[in-house]
Amino acid sequence: LCTSVGPRGPPRARSAPGAPTMSFSGRSRGTSTTSHMGDKLIVEDEGHEPQDGMSWLSSPRSRMFVAFGVCMAMSAVVTTIVLILLPKHAPGPYWEQICTVMCSGPLIAAVNDLGFFNDSKTFVDMPLIEENPKNILDAFTSVDAQAPEAVWAFLAKHFGPAGSDLLTIEPPDWTATPKVATSQTNVTLRSFASGVNAIWRDLTRQVAPDVVAAPQRHTLLPLPRHFVVAGGRFRELYFWDSYWIVLGLLRSGMTETATAMVENLAWTARLLGKVPNGARAYYVNRSQPPLLALMADAVVAETGNATLAAYVLPAVQAEMRWYGILSGGSGAQEVTVGKEKLYRYNVAVSGPRPESWREDMATAKQAGAPPGSQAALSLWGNIASAAESGWDFSSRWLGAGGRDMTTARTSSIVPADLNSIVVMQLRAAARLERVGGAAGSGTTASQYEARATQLCSSINAALWNESLAWWADFDLEAGALKPATAVTPAAFFPLWAGCAGSDVNGTVPDMAYRAANALVHTSGLWQEGGVVTSNLVTGQQWDSPAAWPPLQWILVQALLRAEAKTDAKELARRWLRSNMLGFQRTGTMFEKYDAFNPGHISGGGEYTPQRGFGWTNGVVLDLLSQFDFATLG
């Protein structure tokens, strides 16, 4: 820099026109952080005339030597500070700092090896009492990692309880008498809707002030606004769960909280380049089904909030770049089937999932894959990819009959549901552009719509099974569509996305009619308590006998799009009845139910069934708003 100082004065740096500059600040934070990474700098030379009384500097050569001398002196000072006074390695972003303790290393290994907690997630949700994560690791070097008493004493000294950095708050817009409840003519249904609506008060959170003041001490991300959690062990904000939570909040008239949910998720995407799986530092390496644009679209449609649309659009575009829908991403999610460009889940990892450390280490051991080996990293990457899908875990992602986690191969599966969600994301983004985009963004909206149409064509060309009349996942290893025995509700997501076409003059397209008929009559998924997640009993929670709320909701919408209104209402009735029976029996709501035994919960998976439950409540309230039931039978 000093050698560039010339006779016309020092240079001034400015950002190149159009260079990306992103600023992130939360409402609850006192400062903001600005990132200019990737900016191109242009050196601009501006002349200066000598001032009166400064004739000794009138010579260009004199000015040059003086400026050079001053610059060199300042450089020496800066060098001294950098090399002597500052640490050799400046700390990274706060989510990376906390991850040095909570995502890998000797402490998390010791805690899980000693089996202090039944749930691996408990430890990684504990906040640090010490401000500097590096000090925690330094202090642990003097602890015998194989001595339970010593390690437990260390945890008690340096960590707070899991969840202690979250505050339960009263949602500011909650009402005991939302329209979704008062409009029910059936007294039992009115009571059910009111009871579900009341649960929002138990699930609303905001991060504690210390999460904002010292985020490097917490795996929680310092979200700027309040939010609704799923419930149980899921203490934080989750990505795809939030879509159905937002829909339910809107049905409860809680537009402020619904808006806050969307703003929080958009904030994470603008910060990280994607919405993470959940609002935790240990989730930032993966996402979930890209539903942000649909959430924002739902809120904007309800409120007319153009400001929200404008705020969310850059986050949606970041998400699209990450998936490869827009240029600029890694392309890891893109895949070609024949001539068709589609998308998959494909997460890169450097170790086990921190929130399931013990389980992933056990799976690698069972597979004969030593920790740190390429075989272990590949296995853990496929397990993390399944977690990114939201279907964790399912026979969809496993070989050998869908039972053995050591056979996880998620990145080899091209999912029908993910690609359908991308179609819906593109269409929602087009609507957001027209509401909150910059001048001339109508062109961008048209491009989104064109890409959605193109992707539907690719889905039909690559994934439609003509003989079965549904869209199957494509197995890249086998080079073929999955067979009828592997059918899941994902096979009918393209119907929801409109890929079967729209009715013209009251005529339903043949593809839509056949797919709707297959769902109800030939798939084997249609059961008394809703649509079962697969026809395979594997012990995985996203297989039989489980029925999951988001799948029921999407299939109801799919049937409506196919003009199968009677079947859509019947599926809604079966699902609502199962939920209501369970609520009457237990006084709470669960994340999933048994498709064969209405009102009973379903098990399986890595953890016990969870109460709450965010998306279950949202689906109930939205379906009660969509349909008029005199009784559920």
Q: How would you briefly describe this protein structure?
A:
The protein is mostly helical.
Please tag this protein with its features:
633 residues; mainly alpha; 3-stranded antiparallel beta sheet; 23 helices; 18 strands; 8% strand
Overview of the structural elements:
By secondary structure, this protein is mainly alpha-helical. It is 45% helix and 8% strand. The strands form eight sheets. It has a three-stranded antiparallel β-sheet. α2 (94-102) runs parallel beside α5 and α21 (549-561) packs antiparallel against α22 (565-586).
- On the 0 to 100 scale, the average pLDDT is 88
Please give the count of helices: 23
SS-derived structural category: mainly alpha
Provide the helix percentage. Answer: 40-55%
Spans where pLDDT lies below 50 across 5 or more residues: 1-57, 76-90
The tally of beta strands, per DSSP, is 18
Strand content: 5-15%
Topology:
Blueprint: E1 12-15, E2 22-24, E3 33-35, E4 41-44, H1 60-85, H2 94-102, H3 106-114, H4 121-124, H5 133-140, H6 148-158, E5 166-168, H7 179-182, H8 187-198, H9 200-203, E6 204-207, H10 209-213, E7 227-228, H11 241-251, H12 255-272, H13 292-303, H14 306-323, E8 334-337, E9 340-343, H15 357-366, H16 374-389, E10 413-414, H17 416-436, H18 442-463, E11 464-465, E12 470-471, E13 474-475, E14 480-481, H19 493-496, H20 510-521, E15 526-527, E16 530-531, E17 546-547, H21 549-561, H22 565-586, E18 593-594, H23 614-626
Antiparallel strand pairs: 1-4, 2-3, 5-6, 6-7, 8-9, 10-13, 11-12, 13-14, 15-16, 17-18
